[in-house]
Write a structure and sequence with these properties.
Layout lengths: L1 E5 L2 E4 L4 E8 L10 E7 L5 E8 L4 E4 L4 E6 L4 E6 L8 E8 L14 E6 L1
Parallel strand pairs: 2-10
Antiparallel strand pairs: 1-3, 3-8, 4-5, 4-9, 5-6, 7-8, 9-10
Length: about 120
């Protein structure tokens, strides 16, 4: 069972990116049982939650109004749209799974996708 991120790249400040987190494997057979969180790790800093969706009830939480989190349950994919990118958004974006969005039990981390924002 694994999560795999994609969609990163190098963009200019002010642009947008849509990141994808695809779930696979038997653990994610019931994708809707999970909360999927997106985390941002800036260079030299801790991994911080950017956004999370609890697929059980559809509730979402985001740390920034520029973030939108949404899912495609049929594809077992969670997306993170980041608009008006800032240089501070540079870093690796990871997705992880837990049973809620509290932030304390996330696992099944993907390898991450690099986002670089140039000024």
């Amino acid at each position: 069972a694994q999560l795999a991120e994609s969609g990163g790249g190098t963009v200019q400040a002010g642009g947008s990116l849509r990141l994808a987190c695809a779930a696979s494997g038997p653990i994610f057979r019931d994708f809707d049982d999970y909360a999927i969180g997106w985390f941002h790790q800036a260079p030299g800093k801790k991994r911080m939650m950017a956004a999370c969706m609890n697929l059980r009830d559809g509730t979402t939480t985001t740390s920034d109004i520029r973030y939108t989190i949404f899912s495609n349950a049929q594809e077992k994919t969670m997306y993170l749209q980041i608009n008006n990118l800032e240089v501070e958004d540079t870093g690796v974006y990871y997705c992880g799974a837990d049973y809620d969005c509290s932030g304390y039990g996330f696992g099944h981390w993907g390898p991450g996708t690099q986002v670089t924002v140039s000024s």
